[in-house]
Amino acid sequence: MPEQLTKQDLENFLKQVNESEESDDTECREVIDKAASKIRACILFLADTIEDKTVIHEIEGYIDAIADAVKKAQEKLNPPKLIESLSKSFDEMADSYEDFGFGKLDPEIKIWTMANIQYLSATKLETINSFGKPTIIITPPGSFKSKVDAIDHNKQIEHQCWTYCDPSPSDPLWGGEQTWLEVSVVDGIEAMPEPTFIKDNFTVGDRMKIYENEFKKQKLNLMGLHAGAMLMMKSLKNGMPVDDLLKANTATYYKTKGLTYFSRIPSILWHSKNSHVTFSMQSAKTYGCSHLRCRPSLTLLSH
Question: Does the pLDDT value for residue 261 go beyond 90?
Answer without folding.
Answer: no
